[in-house]
User: What shape does this take?
Amino acid sequence: MRIDLEDKSEHSDAMWVAIAILFFLLTTYLWLQRKVTIRVVREIFNSMEDGHSLIIEDTKLLPKELSLTDFQKILEENKSQIQALKNQHAQRTNEFNETLGGMLDGAMLLDLNHTITFSNQPANDYFSGGEPLTGRRLEAFIDSSQLLEMIDKIKSGKKHEKSEFQYLYSGNSYNFEATGALIHNSVTNKSETILLLLRDVTQIKKSEKMRKDFVANASHELRTPITMIKGFSETLLEESDMLSKPGRNFMQKIHKNALRLQTLVEDLLSLSELEADESTLNKTSNKLSETIHGVHHYLQDKPYIDSEKLFFELEEELEPFPFDAVKMAIAISNLIDNAFKYGINFSKVTVKTQIIKEGGSIACSVIDDGCGIKQKDLNRIFERFYVVDKGRSREKGGTGLGLSIVKHIADLHGGCIRAESSPNEKTVFTIEIPRIES
Assistant: This one.
């Protein structure tokens, strides 16, 4: 019985020794495996970091299903692709910078915090005397709320118009036009850069002001002699005994052309006043329908306007709103005058108003059922001195400025003017202005 107990004890000791040996071997294997893995990973990192070809020595401690050759091949392919993308990105960046650098207008790249990351030479010349602007914030040298508002719209993806601002440098004032766009990062597909384009329009503004001043001054100077010619010709025509029949015919032509000149001068003066920088509106609370009923005052001296062919369809306005009643009366009378002058073979001219609740505005349309206007003429109809039918314009005493005046009045009110026409059916001119001040 004692012998059996000793045998069992010896057997138990041997089992524990075996377990200890197995544990030691397993621990050693795992330690070696970890060491090899760390070495392999370190080699991969070092090789990729140095940009060298990857060289990994096979080891028997790694599993057979792990092919280091395939692994190395995949890493080499990825490395080549990454390098190709880097080269392509660098090439595109260089091409983009060369394009911006070769522009005559100023160009800047801004990050979302308005810090300049690139500026071409014209931009450097405009705003820093030729020194690079890189690293500076836009607000540090350009003080323009209009420009910042445009950039905010660009960042938020809203529709924006070009911005105009003045820049003071060395005691001189310069005028600039600016526009911009978001540039998307091709990797992250996020908008991280703002492209800003700036054009110096100082000389253009000066030339435009000189032209406007010349037109205004010349029109003022012409007003007196034209009035005298018109007055003397009227006097001579009234005195029937003073002129022979041929002389009367000549005098009638003088009087007719004096009237044309007087109309042209008055239109030029009106347009100059509307185009002037200090031009303002005398807004009072009125109803547009009541203003339209008073346009006969502006049409009464035009014999070609037949009141029996003039109809009104005016929507009821419950509340008045602020607008310049005199200027709007001039605009609508010009549209009516235009319809009677050029609406050939029409049976009626309709003045119609509509309150547009969605946009908080009101529209006034002047519609004739005449011959219509061709599309090529519609695209230019609001240009100064543009006339569709020159012969008819001379006959009716047109100046080609009436629709330009309407457009300027609409613009001053923050509204718009548009023209639509269907050949041989109708022509519609619509002026739309806001009823709520922004």
Summary: Residues 414 and 433 are 6 Å apart (CA to CA). Residues 2-86 form one domain. The chain has four domains: 2-86, 102-200, 202-279, 283-438. The longest strand covers residues 172-184.
